[in-house]
Amino acid sequence: MKRRGISLRYKILILLTTIPVLTLAAYLVLAMRVFESDKIAYVFDSTSNMSGTLATQVKTQLNSVLITCKPIFQDYFSTFSRTGQRAFSPAAGVSLQQEPLIGAVAAYRVKEDGGFEQTSLVEREPGLWSRILESQRATISADFGLAQKQGRLLRAPFGDDRVLLFEKFETGQETTIFAVVTSLSEISEMFKTAMSQQMYLIDRSGSILFGPQDTGVRNLRDLMSLSILADPGKKVVQGAETSNGADGRPLLVSYSNAGFGDLIVVSTVSREKALSAVSMLLRKSLIFFVILICLTVVISLIASGTITRALTSLFAATQKVSEGQFDIRVDVTSNDEVGALADNFNVMAAEVSRLLEQTAEKARMESELQTAKTVQETLFPETRSRLPGLEIAGFYEPASECGGDWWHYCEVGQRVFLWIGDATGHGAPAALITSAAKSAATIIESMNVNPAQAMTFLNKAICEVSRGRIMMTFFLAAFDRRTQTLTYANASHEAPFLIRRGESELKKRDLIPLNEVNSPRLGQAKDTEYQETSVQLQPGDMIFFYTDGVPDVRSPGNEAWGEREFIRTLVSVYKDFPSAEDSVERFVGTFQSFRQGSQLADDVTFFVIKNEESGGV
Question: For 108, phi and psi rounded to 5 degrees?
């Protein structure tokens, strides 16, 4: 035996170094991810609170504007001009002059053709509203239309802190829309001067009403993609998501509904800026990581040298063992695991010889069991057979190499003898009893006796062989093809089921157990006398013979198939009175599906006969 590859000392060194490296690397990655996730969650929480607070302030100030304008609105609805139309009174102009933030209030009536007609105007300085209409000629009609649809609308088309506020009122059959020119300097300043994050006041179309001072676009869609903008009809209360900016950098976005029209406050933070603390933590962790690895390498060098000295002695001893020298002893004085390994090696060397002898004996026994299995297979008949007037099909699977179940059929003149038995237990002893039963049956076939007499002879043979230590349940029947009569005797075996052919669908009550006679098991007492009885068969009748291992089949979860499921399967399989061969295939398929390859608790044996429609010979 030669050493191959890298020395064990260096392998241990690599192992002792690699494990801490991988562990620390995994810890570092996991810690970074946890810290990053926690930081993102914190940023989302902070920005959500910020957007929510700012949304509340926007709603409050806009509602304050409406409250300020309320006397002016009321003045309009309570005053009529000479032509009979509603109009602002001089008192409305006085009220407007007392409110420095209000520039103008224009009232528009919705015409029958869907257009809009100015009915009255009050303004702080003459010509203000006319200049606004001139500058907003391209969009003002669309704004009035949207205000009529939504009931409330805010626009900021001036590029400063002034806004156009549209408010709809319906009085009877008439719809009035007020256009208010007002200043929102405080709100504008808050959106412009946000330091750690960028704040936007937008509507559902994405139009930016207020935003950072250096914003060069008018629609938020040009800066980022948001789910709330992709589906304008979706209801928005408050939320957060990640997005990419126009330059491709990832952003952390929070938004809140302002509760005023379709206004939304959006807060954005650069992901890189939000996670700047993670980079600092990573650099410090890497420094600590390198120092710890250096210490690990030094300690590993010392430990690996100590361990390999004792292992070298063990290596030399294994070389001698490989040459067949099992009386070798290893002298290692250490009291650690390596010392214990040396002691165990000494014990192992002494045990190897014994195990080699034991393995050879086990191989011999397995070979003999396989031979016994092959011999036992010759005791069974063909599993599919068609005799004159009778169809037979069967199935047998032992729980181990050799089984204690046996079934057989043979023709004696115009009679067909049907044999099935189950010796106590399974394995080689039970297989020997089935072999004795087969030998006795071969002799009994030539004696031209009835089932009861045959059972008596068979009992004496089993008693002679087993000496009362192994017994056997047995069921023996003889079918006379001329008289269509089945005569049977039973030695404590499971009663077969007679399945009568009828006109209606087969039910559980149609399964007739053949249990009119029952006697002690074979091998229990040498002088036992057995009784027999007969039953008349009809064309198409079937009989199911089986051993107790059939209902005892178990699933991988150790759940027994059981008598209830066994009977239900019989009814299902034989409801259309199939051929004997088809019925066996159906039955085997059902219980194998339940079993799913699990170990058998007992041998499984059954066979079926079918009295053919043509009757006897």
Answer: -125, 140
| CA separation, residue 103 to residues 29, 167, 608 (Å) | 59, 16, 104
- pLDDT tens, 1-42? 555 667 766 777 777 778 877 887 788 778 777 877 887 787
CA distance 75 to 176: 13
Helix (H) or strand (E) segment spanning residue 520: none
Q: How far is CA 237 from CA 56, 124, 204, in A?
A: 12, 37, 12
Among 279, 273, 276, 275, residue whose Cα is nearest residue 195: 273
pLDDT digits (tens, 9 = 90+) for 516-571: 999 999 999 999 999 999 999 999 999 999 999 999 999 999 999 999 999 999 99
DSSP string, 413-426: TTEEEEEEEEESS-
Q: Which of 475, 495, 498 is nearest to 408 (CA)?
A: 475
- Residue 64 is encoded by which pair of tokens? 């304050």
Question: Among residues 426, 566, 439, 428, which one has the least CA distance to residue 496?
Answer: 566
Query: In terms of pTM, does the model score above 0.90?
Result: no
Task: Tell which phi-psi region holds residue 469, choosing left (phi > 0), alpha (psi between -120 and 50) or beta.
Answer: alpha
Helix orientation angle between 562-573 and 580-595, rounded to the nearest 10 degrees: 140
For residue 520, give both structure tokens: 């002690």
Cα(340)–Cα(348) distance, integer angstroms? 12
